[in-house]
Design goal:
Blueprint (H helix, E strand, L loop, with lengths): L2 H13 L7 H26 L7 H28 L11 E10 L2 E8 L2 E8 L2 E9 L13 H14 L1
Length: about 160
Amino acid sequence: MPAAFWFKIAAIMTSSSIFRVNPARRVRAQGAAAIAAWVPAVACAQTTAEGVGVSAGALVQMLLSLLLIIALLFAGAWLLRRLNGGVSFGHNGPLRIVGGLMISPRERIVLIEVADSWLVVGIVPGQIKTLHTLPKGDLPAPPNGDKPFGQWLKQFSERKHGQ
């Protein structure tokens, strides 16, 4: 539709007697009329303007920049590992999580090994509390029914490929 049509609609909306009752309504009507006149004009301008495409050079430059940033991230990770002696963060301290039990989605009990003792710790949102202290012990071997997921997946894939 031509822009003149929308300007006529805007003029009718601002001069209508419905909007003369309350000055606040008149302001809203004028704002609505301005938007009603502006939106089609922008839409017409967008449809008549020729689309400008992205050149191949700009696309290649963008891809090379992205590859450079990814390479810098990997180089930084490699450098940190070399400076740290090949040990990942968090694995070289005196603490070790022996096991845990999830009581609810927000509550859990964790068994932590510290030197020669085990701490039973309760974790809830906003609070961590020591429940009990035990001497360090040995964990019983898991029964055959409790296989780690990796072993289960390996057996499943061997059974699938064996058939």
